[in-house]
Fold this protein.
Amino acid sequence: MEKIVILTGAGISAESGLGTFRDEGGLWTQYALEDVATPEGFARDPVLVHEFYNARRAHAAEAVPNPAHLALARLEEALGGEVLIVTQNVDGLHEKAGCRNVLHMHGQLDRALCAGCGHRWEAPLEMSVEDACPACGARAVRPDVVWFGEMPYHMDRIDRELAEADIFAAIGTSGQVYPAAAFGQMAGAYGARTVELNLERSAASEDFGEMRHGPASKVVPAWVEEVLGV
Ligand code: APR
C-alpha cells in the first residue's frame, strides 16, 4: 500500500470562506504579521493579538469543510493509516471533514497554551489577557499557534514521514514559509512522486513533478478519485 503525505495550506480553506494570507485581501494585507504572529508582537500588545485570534477563531468555528477537505477524508477512509495530512492551517477543517490522521505543524486555533508552564487546553472562543492558566494560575495565556521565529510542531515525525512517502502532495500553499516550503523538494529527493494542487504556480512549483492548477474544491476531489482508481 502506498504511503501518501499531504501538506495543506490556507488555499484549501479559501472556498470555506476563510481568508488566505498572501492573496489579494489576505490576512497579511490587513495586519502586520510582526504585530500579531510573533512572540515580540504578543509581548508588545497581547490585547491586539487576542483580538486577532478571537476573530479568526469565531470565523473558523462557523466555517464548514469544502469538497477538497471532504475528498481528503474519503482518501483517509479508503487508505487508513497510509494517509497523513500535515497542515499549516489552524482552522480545524480537516477534523470537521472527518480526518483523524492530521499533524498541526502551526498549532490550532481551538487550543490555548500557558507561556508560563507550557500547559495546553481547549481554548474558549474568546481569550483575553485576563485569562489565568488552569494549571499554574499565571496570566500568561496565549493561542497555541506557532508564530514566526518559533519552531513548528512535529518536525521529527514529519521528516520521518517525508522519507517514507511514496506520494507527496501540496495543496493550497504559496511555498513561501519554511520548513513547509521545502517538503516537496525533500520528499522528491527521497524518491516520492510529488504533485502540487494549487490555484496557480507557487514559489515551490519547480520542486514538484506534477502540477494541477485550479480551485481546490475541483482539483482535489479529481486527484483523490484518480489515486483511488475510481
Ligand atoms: N484553491 C487552491 N489554492 C488556492 C485557492 C483555492 N481556492 N485560493 C488560494 N489558493 C492558493 C494561493 O494561490 C496560494 O498559493 O493558496 C495559497 C495561499 O498561500 P498563503 O496565503 O501564503 O498561505 P499558506 O501557504 O498556507 O501560508 C503558509 O504562512 O503566515 C504563515 O502560518 C501562516 O500557515 C501560514 C503560512
